[in-house]
Amino acid sequence: MPALKQKISEIFNQMADLLDIKGDNEFRVRSYREAAKTVSGLSDDISDIADDEKKIKSLPGLGESMAQKIKEIAETGKLKQLEKLKQEVPETLIDIMKLEQMGPGRTRILYNNLKIKSIEDLKNALKKNKVEKLEGFGKKTTGQLKEEVEKFMEEKGHERFKLNVAEDISAPLIEYLKKKVGNITIAGSYRRNKETVGDIDILVTSDNPGKTMDYFVDYEDVAKVLSKGKSKSSVRLNTGIQVDLRIIEKRSWGAALLYFTGSKAHTIQLRKIGQDKDLKVNEYGIFDGKKSLASETEEEMYEVLGLYYIEPELRENRGEIDASKNHKLPSLIELKDIKGDLHTHTDATDGKYSMEDMVKQAVEFGYSYYAITDHSKKVAMANGLDEKRLQKQIDKIDELNKKEKKIRILKAIEVDILEDGKLDLPNEILKHLDLVVCSIHYNMKLSEKKQTKRVLKAMENPYFNIFAHPTGRRIQEREPYRIDLKEIMKEARDNGCFLEVNSDPNRLDLNDSQIIMAKDIGLKLAVSTDAHNLSSLKNMKYGVAQARRGWLEKEQVINTYTWKELRKMLKRK
Q: How confident is the model at residue 1 (pLDDT cuts 50, 70, 90)?
């Protein structure tokens, strides 16, 4: 079943959310979240092993109970336990829980006291000033809550899917279509590697359009056929995402690819350039009257307009056209440029695999160095390392480095930045490390001034190297905390520190605009996965895609350098 991973992950996350709202056992809630994370992080389609409980149980974090549930979902598309839970706790409460001012506790209070079951109910209660009278709420909180509810209502009906989810959904469909078409490419925001995708635009060439469209709408994951024509058809899949299939003539392939890749603002600028030359630019080509000047490739389309080829990630009308005219387009970083991963976790804390397993995968990727950055003691829920356990890990890495000839394992830590700006572990232990990655996991609701001061204070520590997931955002789940990134970037640049582009597709933190800001400031960045299992090590491609959207060249990313070069960079002034 296509997209089975998403279905299982979604059901497990719903179980966790509803149990959390209900006030169920914290361990039980966490077990569902971890199972959802494990399933979504699998590199292979779980449908291949869904009926084999033994193979499922062998996956980290998935025991016999979860294996049985996965089998049930694979066979029926549902989980009886979830359907029963929905009768006790309304599913619509999940939307409320995910508002920034809420959470499971406050959501439970609203439900128990005011019988609020939906965002609409909450909006009405806020309008009547009922919410601010409840314990744990007040004028300030309800004021912010009103703004969040309005924003939610505005965005409702415009659902977007994270890039990795869109990729997992589209991959089996592309394989399915390849059997009946010639050229095939996904265009739109997907091709531009935007962090979220509204729908999937597939372009194909075909010698038999009618049969191709029949074949497309017969795809097993189609929930509804929205329209069907000779050159374009649209369907909605069971996951809720819309897919548009367009059949393109071979002679117009490049023009259509350029037009449907977008962005709209980029293509409008191209049309204006054409108009200035008395040319017509559209999805069929570039025309001087009725004469076609270009259409088969994107390269020739740009060339006729007097431009060098512009990579899809840059096509956002953010100066790329002027850069092309003036021969100043960046030579964008590529995945092959990455020489090592500088932020990863093992089963010593909340990772799913041993150090040896993670290193083995890094060797297979061809990395020349690899950092083990388990959590520090502040993150108690993740069984963070104290000084004694970190020292044991340092000793273990030293021993492993003696045996390992293909890669250098870096002694490192992801250390928490405490509210007062101190680091969670003393310098006496940090000085023995190759790398110190620093991050915020608690006290995210400080004012911008206090949060900024907190990080600037931490950067004064001579062992501070990289500020990880610098805004704390989780896409579609958690808003970034308030912080003056520009000031932090300047301070990092002047003091030999770096910021991270976190490759986790749920984070992609920094975002593309912030990466451009770092580049303009002259600050080098690290692109790391924050991997907690073997498959999430492959997420490096999303971080590199984000770096490309931020106009980065490989020289601006510290883990494209050799270990010898990087080691010098990490030595603070």
A: very low
